[in-house]
Amino acid sequence: MPALTQTIDYFAFGQGRSMLIFLAVFFLLASLIGFIRFSDAIKWVLEKIAFTAGWLLIVLMFITCMDITFRKLQLPIALTQFQELEWHIHTIVFSMWMGYNYTINAHPRVDSYTETLPFRGRAWVEFLGILILALPFLLTMLNHGLPFVTVSFVQNEASENVIGLPYRWAIKGIFYAGIWLVLLGVLSVLLRLMIVLFRRGSQEETGLQIGHSELEA
Known about the structure:
Elements: H1 2-13, H2 16-33, H3 35-54, H4 56-73, H5 80-103, H6 119-154, H7 168-198, H8 203-206
C-alpha cells in the first residue's frame, strides 16, 4: 500500500503530473490527426534526426584513425581529448538513433517464444510489453534524467582529466534527449498496435513492424 500511495501522489501531485499531461496531449493529437498519420509523422521526424546524426560516423572514423595513427607513431601529442571525443560522438549517434530503431524493428530482440506466435499474438506481446515495461522504464528515466543533466550544468561539469573535454553536461543532455526520442518511437509503435488490436487493422495497412526480422544487405 505505501508503494501504491507514493505512486498516486507522484502522478497526481508530483513531477509525474507533467508526464501525464504530455501523454494526454499526445493521444489527443493522435485522435485529431489520425493514429496512423500521426505515427507516420513521428517516424519521419525520427528518421530525419537519425540519418542526420549518422553523418557523424564519418567524423568518428576520421578521429579514430587519427587517434590510432598518433598512438602507433608515438607522437608527443595528448590523445585524451581525441579519445573522449570518440565516445562523445558515439553517444550522440546512439542517442539519436535509438528512437528510430524501435520504429523499424531494428533493436535487439529475443524471439525464441514470440516467433512461433501469429501476427496478432506478437502484437499483444508487444502491446503489453510497452505498457508494463517500456513506458514505466522510460518515464522513470526521464524523471530522474533531468536532474542528472541540470546538476551537471549548474556545476559546469567537465572531464575528470585535466586536459579532457569541458561541458560534460552537454553530452548528458544529448543522451537525455535520446530517451525522449525513444519514448516517441515507442508511442508511435503503440498507436499502430492499437489499430491492429482494437480496430482489426492489418499489418500492411498499419505498417507495423514487430517480431523476427532479418537485415537485408
